[in-house]
Design a protein that fits this description.
By secondary structure, the chain is an alpha/beta fold. The chain has 10 helices and 10 strands.
Amino acid sequence: MHGVRAASIQLTLDQQRAADAAIGPPHIQGQNVFITGPAGTGKTSVTDYVMRNLVVKYGNPVSVVRAAPTHGATQNLNCPDSGRISTIPALFRTFPVYVTRDQPPLADNASVKQRRKVEEKLRDAHWKEKKDRSKAKFGGPDYFTREMNEVRVVHFDEISMVSGRVLEAIEYICRETSGNMGVLFGGKQIIITGDRAQLPTVQARGMKYDMFYPLAPGEAPKRFDQAVFELQGPNGPRSVGFYEAFNLYPLWVNFRVTPNDLYMRYLLQNVRYGQLDEF
């Protein structure tokens, strides 16, 4: 690892705490962090700075990846020298349509236990199909596994658009491809940014599956921060919640609104929480 940092920028105290936690000491992996805050608090600037430093730290831009739920959302990640960019579905092969389309529908009154059983069956079938297809295309060892094992750090932006079950599936993929089923994300460092009060989880009309989970009638996708990661350790299974898996770093200073525009700040905050009752 390299001990030289990328060019510095002026950060607030909150931003500096988040950046230091994510970058970590020269020879130690940084924390898994959730950097959040309202629009205009510098989440993008901080993570651009963090990711540039992580590319310098590891000396390999291929091992540092920035991902977002859609191609449009990746446009905000186009900072030079901050790692390679991908959509989340392309990076983690989270296209479950091949296995869900042939699954017989469950009864509307099926229990959560029954739905979880289907979820696990479809998940395992999906990853087997992906690995078999990769072997057939590239020959020899599973290319997808080798590609994933090159990755040391992943930054997820606009996390509020991502279902909690997609995040659970990604965590499982990282463990399964690393062979380390007892460590969160197989030991990869994960940096998450977003604001749950901004963009909602992406949901198609008539959506029947939340990743591999068959939804009950009227059931919404799981929020990202409701994700629960099921680890398999030597002492048996262990459940880890989102806020146990990630250290929270909220940002508060708003750079888009000057001190003279306090009414505008009031309006933006009320729009954020859906409480605007006047114009």
